[in-house]
């Protein structure tokens, strides 16, 4: 892995940990709104993002390099409703998808075939990340973003369990 590739991967590790941080903050906000199901969903997402970061971190080590951990920003986004929160999730995931695609382009330019193979997993994962957020937004809209409908969506979000490592 050359230096340009390593610099780019280090930035992506930071972005994945930043995502984790954002979702843990959203989990706290949902706890404050007494939406324990959505808080659970966000906490699982925090775990997933930590896994995404660590998978890249481990790859760098396996390639004989030393990852560098950059500083994270304090999550500042707030929301007034579950709909607003998941719209923020979708927007954030679209941004991360672009970062992954940019990283893939570096891997192609640098002819880093091992990195390209690894990033195929992330490219697929981003399709799933956006799909999940869109599906939740649809459910919240159908439920009217309040009352009993939202209560049922929250209960559904509470059923999300941690995926086995690697999924
Ligand atoms: Fe790591 O996929 Fe979300 O951000």
Q: In a few lines, what is going on in this structure?
A:
The protein is mainly alpha-helical and 167 residues long. It has a single domain (3-157), classed as Ferritin. The protein has 5 helices and no strands.
Describe, in plain words, how this protein is organized in 3D:
- The protein has 167 residues and is an all-alpha fold.
- The chain has a single domain, classed as Ferritin, core subunit, four-helix bundle (Ferritin, Up-down Bundle).
- 75% of the residues lie in helices and 0% in strands.
- It has five helices and no strands.
- The longest helix is centred in the N-terminal third of the chain and has 30 residues, at 3-32.
- It is elongated and about 55 Å long.
- The chain binds hydroxy diiron-OXO moiety (OFO).
- Hydroxy diiron-OXO moiety binds next to helix 1, helix 2 and helix 3.
Q: How many discrete domains?
A: 1
| Shape type | elongated
* Unreliable sequence segments: none
Estimate the helix proportion, in percent: over 70%
The description of the largest β-sheet is: none
Count of alpha and pi helical runs: 5
Q: List each distinct ligand once.
A: hydroxy diiron-OXO moiety
Radius of gyration: 17 Å
Query: So what's the CATH class?
Result: Mainly Alpha
> What number is the mean pLDDT?
96
CATH-assigned homologous superfamily: Ferritin, core subunit, four-helix bundle
Distance between the termini: 25 Å
State the secondary-structure class.
mainly alpha
CATH topology: Ferritin
Instruction: Count every beta strand, where a strand is a DSSP E run of 2 or more residues.
Output: 0
Order of helices and strands: HHHHH
């Amino acid at each position: 892995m050359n230096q340009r590739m390593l610099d780019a991967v280090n930035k992506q590790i930071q972005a994945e940990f930043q995502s984790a941080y954002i979702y843990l903050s959203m989990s706290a906000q949902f706890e404050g709104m007494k939406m324990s199901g959505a808080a659970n969903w966000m906490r699982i997402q925090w775990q997933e993002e930590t896994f995404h970061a660590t998978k890249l971190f481990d790859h760098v080590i396996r390639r004989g390099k030393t990852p560098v951990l950059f500083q994270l920003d304090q999550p500042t986004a707030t929301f007034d409703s579950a709909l607003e929160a998941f719209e923020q999730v979708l927007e954030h995931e679209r941004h991360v998808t672009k970062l992954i695609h940019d990283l893939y382009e570096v891997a192609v330019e640098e002819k880093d075939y091992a990195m390209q193979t690894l990033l195929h997993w992330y490219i697929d994962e981003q399709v799933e990340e956006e799909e999940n957020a869109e599906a939740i937004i649809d459910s919240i809209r159908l439920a009217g973003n309040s009352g009993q409908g939202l209560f049922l969506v929250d209960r559904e979000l509470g059923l999300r369990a941690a995926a086995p490592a690697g999924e």
